[in-house]
């Protein structure tokens, strides 16, 4: 490797480490925000104060280590404030919470470097926040004056993060091979530790190999330290949080020395016998192993971070593989060759488990998305003078990363709407004898191949009559139209529709719920609204678990092929002409004593080829009950790579996408929920069939060859 | 260049200047190996250095041990500035461990 290449590799390693700091710091910020909001509800809970302090302390120390010096300096002032709180010199109050929340926003902006590495933080806002914090703590700004590149020490802490009695700890720290290459500096960690209390340090050179064999960019030195501090083990470990995966670390209390040392902390600086003893113990195995350390073992990381783009690429490739595998299966089926058939089946099995595994990797708990709304509710409630708490249920429910990524916006609009329009002002709640603190409940749960995400409030409920009148005013419905409750609520999701007479900063422009509908549509989801006057409203989003590949059942009607999601499918039964006659040509069938209505796809999609003597009914479970879909033939299971139909077909509700079959033709993927609802709607007297919702019309199914469907993908 | 080697008939002098950190570690190693293999006395001129990181410390330590093993003369000349010595002590190193063999 040339010198230039080596330098480039080093720079990219350092960037990677910085990036890793950014990601971890963002996670800490989320935790900090949650702790602050909890603190707001639970007053001066010491544990929460400690959590906030530790979070700030970690961001500060590690920020300085990775070159985010402005960030470290800014955070240090906040840390000082929480040190005062911890020591009982400052009380937690809403102003401090809001100030700290605003400061976290600035820290987040400092992490998001703009073009040319410039910070995106608002400098004026930072100055104002610091001035207020200083006024509150009565302390001058710490760490003013920028440190130069030669002195990359962390900003000095006001005091150690005390959380217990003074005691002595033995810390053994052996950096991993790649620690230095990743831009970390172990010497700065030692300085950081020194801020926690009295520290004596001994460096061990036992693992340094002969000069000729020494890799100049690798760290061979290990450290043995004695630390006398009031800080907890967690607080000590936090110093190492960003290098923990790249080092060997042990933090052990020294059993009986605590009290002795407490009375004479200076003795910690004397070369302690215990340190020498443990230093020797540390040295021995290293010298025996010729300088190799145990962190060289390949299994030292239990989890790893992978850029989302790489994962997307991986899943795309799996999708392509599934499509090619379908072609292979098709080919094997056509040739009467047992060997090819055997290989094809083996590949099918492998592809199937590869697909399941790759889909599992993409599944993430929705917790992070939910948690960030605590802040939104807090800020909105404060701005609107309301008292609102957010409760969360089912935060561990997992769904596809792509779905999660697109959920933030719709949920934000629903929550804004709830706080602004749903929750009544305090005086109205008082008059209605409701609890002064209103609740917004955010929940997630699985239901078949879907996930249900609900935003519920205990507010005033939707005034259906006001919605109807507004719709009449806007010409959306005729004055004497009889519309159902669900249809009334659906009007709320029309573009520009709002019953609010006054537009506020929060909502009332009629844009938010339209965004919700569009986003849910693009995710092939559905919205369900329930509301009780005076009691509250609940909006449930039904979303598919995944947007990439599903297990499907391939069926045919005439020349057309369709895929039904396997998760909805219960069983398959035969439908003979006699069965039809027995039911007087009504679209119902008796399944073991239960009458089940069915929808004949041939009729629904106007497919004109003749009906076979024996048809097949696929029984599916929907929210509206059990339905049968009548098809000509069931062709078998198929792993279905979902392709979007494109925006021309966005109004075709009963089809959730298309897939390419092994023979290169296209099959439409049916949405059983919507298909059943559409059939019920069409069967309701007085309704005209909605041609726009006709997949056959758009996909060339009416007697045309399947190949003509290709242009829809 | 923060790391340079000057040689005459009797002496190899490696001069360290400014911050001696990981980005010049490979170069420092190469110069140390070259100096020690010449069989001449090796002197490390450290007075113009402002900072040594772990890579520099472990290289100098390994060079000193190498010199001791082969019986070559090795020395910090003149002794490290107090700033560097203090920083080394703070990090648990003894400046003596880098001094001459």
Protein traits:
heterodimer; A: 713 residues; alpha+beta; Four Helix Bundle (Hemerythrin (Met), subunit A); Alpha-Beta Plaits; Helix Hairpins; five-stranded mixed sheet; 21% strand; disordered C terminus; B: 101 residues; alpha/beta; Transcription Regulator spoIIAA; four-stranded mixed sheet; 3 helices; 4 strands
Q: How is this structure best described in words?
A:
The complex is a heterodimer of chains A (713) and B (101). Chain A is an alpha+beta fold and 713 residues long. Chain A has five domains: 3-137, HPT domain (Four Helix Bundle (Hemerythrin (Met), subunit A)), CATH 1.20.120.160; 167-293, Alpha-Beta Plaits (2-Layer Sandwich); 308-364, Helix Hairpins; 366-544, Histidine kinase-like ATPase, C-terminal domain (Heat Shock Protein 90), CATH 3.30.565; 549-712, CheA-289, Domain 4 (OB fold (Dihydrolipoamide Acetyltransferase, E2P)), CATH 2.40.50.180. In chain A, strand 17 (614-622) and strand 18 form a beta hairpin. In chain A, helix 1 (3-42) packs antiparallel against helix 2 (46-65) and helix 1 (3-42) crosses helix 12. The radius of gyration of chain A is 32 Å and the shape is flat. Chain B has one domain (3-98): Transcription Regulator spoIIAA. In chain B, strands 1-2-3-4 form a four-stranded mixed sheet. Chain B has helices at 25-37, 54-70, 82-90; strands spanning 3-7, 11-20, 41-52, 74-76. Classes of the chains: A alpha+beta (713), B alpha/beta (101). The A-B interface holds A 3, 6-7, 10, 149-150, 175, 180-181, 185-187, 190-191, 194, 201-203, 205, 208-212, 214, 216-217, 219-221, 223-225 and B 19, 22-23, 25-26, 28-29, 32-33, 36, 50-51, 53-55, 57-59, 61-63, 65-66, 87, 90-93, 97.
């Amino acid at each position: 490797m040339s010198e230039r290449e080596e330098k480039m590799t080093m720079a990219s390693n350092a960037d990677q480490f910085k990036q890793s700091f950014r990601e971890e710091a963002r996670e800490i910020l989320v935790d900090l925000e949650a702790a602050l909001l909890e603190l707001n509800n639970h007053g001066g809970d010491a544990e929460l104060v400690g959590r906030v302090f530790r979070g700030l302390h970690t961001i500060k120390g590690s920020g300085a280590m990775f070159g985010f010096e402005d960030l470290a300096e800014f955070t240090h002032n906040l840390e000082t404030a929480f040190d005062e709180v911890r020591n009982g010199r400052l009380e937690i109050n809403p102003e401090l919470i809001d100030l700290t929340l605003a400061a976290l926003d600035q820290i987040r902006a400092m992490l998001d470097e703009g073009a040319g590495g410039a910070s995106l933080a608002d400098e004026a806002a930072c100055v104002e926040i610091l001035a207020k914090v200083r006024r509150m703590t009565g302390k001058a700004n710490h760490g003013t004056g920028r440190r130069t590149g030669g002195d990359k020490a962390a900003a000095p802490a006001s005091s150690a993060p005390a959380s217990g009695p003074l005691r002595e700890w033995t810390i053994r720290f052996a950096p991993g091979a790649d620690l230095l290459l990743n831009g970390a500096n172990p010497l700065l960690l030692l300085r950081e530790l020194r801020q926690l209390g009295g520290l004596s340090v001994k460096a061990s050179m036992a693992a340094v190999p002969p000069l000729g064999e020494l890799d100049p960019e690798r760290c061979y030195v290990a450290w043995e330290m004695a630390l006398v501090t009031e800080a907890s083990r967690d607080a000590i470990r936090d110093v190492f949080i960003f290098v923990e995966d790249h080092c060997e670390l042990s933090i052990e209390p020294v059993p009986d020395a605590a009290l002795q040392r407490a009375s004479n902390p200076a003795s910690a600086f004397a070369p302690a016998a215990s340190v020498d003893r443990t230093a020797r113990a540390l040295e021995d195995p290293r010298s025996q192993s010729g300088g190799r350390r145990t962190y060289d073992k390949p299994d030292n990381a239990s989890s790893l971070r992978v850029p989302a783009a790489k994962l997307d690429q991986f899943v795309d490739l799996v999708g392509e593989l599934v499509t090619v595998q379908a072609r292979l299966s098709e080919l094997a089926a056509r040739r009467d060759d047992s060997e090819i058939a055997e290989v094809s089946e083996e590949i099918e099995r492998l592809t199937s488990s590869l697909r399941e595994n790759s889909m599992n990797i993409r599944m993430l708990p929705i917790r992070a998305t939910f948690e960030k709304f605590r802040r939104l509710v807090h800020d909105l409630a404060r701005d609107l003078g309301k008292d609102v708490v957010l409760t969360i249920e089912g935060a561990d429910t997992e769904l596809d990363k792509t779905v999660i990524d697109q959920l933030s916006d719709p949920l934000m609009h629903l929550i804004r709407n709830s706080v602004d329009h749903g929750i009544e002002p305090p005086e109205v709640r008082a008059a209605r004898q409701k609890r002064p603190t209103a609740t917004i409940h955010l929940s997630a749960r699985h239901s078949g191949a879907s996930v249900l995400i609900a935003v519920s409030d205990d507010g005033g409920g939707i005034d259906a009559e006001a919605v109807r009148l507004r719709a009449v005013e806007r010409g959306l419905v005729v004055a004497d139209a009889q519309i159902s409750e669900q249809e009334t609520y659906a009007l709320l999701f029309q573009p520009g529709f709002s019953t609010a007479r006054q537009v506020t900063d929060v909502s009332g422009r009629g844009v938010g719920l339209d965004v919700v509908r569009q986003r849910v549509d693009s995710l092939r989801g559905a919205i369900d609204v329930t509301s009780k006057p005076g009691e509250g409203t609940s909006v449930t989003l039904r979303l598919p678990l995944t947007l990439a590949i599903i297990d499907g059942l391939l069926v045919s009607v005439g020349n057309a092929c369709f895929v039904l999601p396997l998760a909805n499918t219960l069983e398959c039964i035969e439908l003979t002409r006699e069965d039809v006659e027995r039911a007087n040509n009504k679209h119902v069938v008796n399944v073991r004593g239960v009458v089940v209505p069915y929808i004949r796809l041939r009729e629904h999609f106007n497919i004109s080829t003749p009906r076979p003597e024996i048809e097949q009914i696929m029984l599916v479970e929907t929210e509206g009950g059990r339905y049968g879909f009548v098809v000509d033939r069931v062709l078998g299971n198929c792993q279905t790579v979902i392709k979007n139909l494109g925006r021309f077909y966005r109004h075709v509700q009963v089809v959730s996408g298309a897939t390419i079959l092994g023979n290169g033709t296209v099959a439409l993927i049916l949405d059983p929920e919507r298909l059943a609802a559409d059939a019920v709607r069409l069967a309701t007297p007085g309704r005209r069939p909605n041609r726009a919702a006709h997949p056959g019309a758009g996909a060339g199914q009416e007697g045309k060859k399947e190949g003509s469907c290709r242009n829809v993908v | 260049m923060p790391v340079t080697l000057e040689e005459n008939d009797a002496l190899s002098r490696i001069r360290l200047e400014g911050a001696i950190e990981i980005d010049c570690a490979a170069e420092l190693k190469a110069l140390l190996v070259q100096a020690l293999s010449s069989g001449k006395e090796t002197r490390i001129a450290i007075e113009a250095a402002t900072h040594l990181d772990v890579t520099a410390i472990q290289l100098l330590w390994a060079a000193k041990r190498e010199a001791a093993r082969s019986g070559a003369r090795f020395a910090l000349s003149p002794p490290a500035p107090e700033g560097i010595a203090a920083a080394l002590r703070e990090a648990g190193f003894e400046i003596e461990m880098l001094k001459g063999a």
